[in-house]
Amino acid sequence: MSGHHPHEETTTSPYAARIRAIEALLLEKGILTEPEVQDRISYMEARSPANGAKLVARAWIDDEFKGLLLSDGKAAASQLGMDPEHPAEFVVVQNTPKVHNLIVCTLCSCYPRAILGRPPDWYKSFEYRSRSVREPRAVMREFGFEPPENVEVLVHDSTADVRYMVLSMRPSGTEDLDEEGLARLVTRDSLVGVSVPRAPGATDPG
Amino acid sequence: MTYGPGDQVRVLPLEKPGHVRTPDYLKGKNGWIEFLIGPYPNPEVLAYGLSGLPERNLYKVGFKQADLWEDYRCPAEDRLYADVYEHWLEPGEGGTA
Question: Which of residues 27-86 of B touch A (CB under 8 A)?
Answer without folding.
Answer: 37-38, 40, 43, 58, 60, 65, 68-69, 72, 74-75, 77-85
